[in-house]
Amino acid sequence: MVDRVDQNEESGDDFFDAPTDGGEGIGLDTAEEVDYPALRQFTVISEEQCIFLLDLSRRFEASLVRVLGISVQHQSDFTVAKLILNEPERGREILELAGFSPIESNVIAVELTEGVDLPAVCSALLTAELGILHLYPLLEPPRVNPVVAISLENVELAISVLHQQGFRLLDEGDFLT
């Protein structure tokens, strides 16, 4: 976890591409352990839509793995779900047992507080010329403040930029129950 330091200071076709962190540390199949605050995101693709989401929800509910964040996009022939889970290792096992080949990537989680809103986060990233691949809110923030998950072209640089500007970044440890 990176604490707040100073209070002052996609088109549809690209959606299913495996996100990267600038080519360092991320394979197409598995996000490696990292030394910076990040969350693991799983991307799964299915030809089903509603049945697919219902099945995943039931599997996670039965295992006590919670879905912290989800983004779903339906294309004409398939559905893409991006998931952040409270227990990534168990979550990957559940996805694999269900017949999916999840793609793992690292995303950052930024806590939004009074004076630190989404435009401030976007402005900081834009200033560093970092492209946002996708962004979505987390369903279960660890505190009362909202949290957004952001997939970027270069995760390490984004973390450095946001940390230098005093944003509070969360990691998997912040979501353990």
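The above is record 1. Record 2 follows with the same two-line structure.
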Amino acid sequence: MHDSSVRWYTCTELNRSFKSKQAGHLKTHKATVHEGDGNWFSCSEPDCVFKAKQFGGVKRHKAAIHNIEVKWYPCTVPPSCDFRTKQASNLISHKVAAHGIDVTWYYCSSCDYVSNSFQSYFSKHIILSCFPKLPSIKN
């Protein structure tokens, strides 16, 4: 059943087929697809043509591409680890991989297998390798 009282907002540029029941969606479409109807924030670095609809997009671009206004996360493990990253999650991964810090180890009780990943490795090891070898329990 169609409601004839619904007003559709249709894009008329370049024979686009975009339409929406909300004027705001058409405005966003025009701004992102046709670069009209709105303010754009541009990267201020020489010869860079990057632009974004929100200032946060330019800020992330500058940090990722031009290393401007970057919050660095340095590794603090002594004696002299010089690793640093722009993302906190990468620092955690580095500490686990390079220094074995904040790692939970899983030890197989049937063999010498050890893993720091329960989901990916340890549980599969138990099921595929050691579980078939465990003695059966008789009632």
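DSSP finds four helices and eight strands in the chain.
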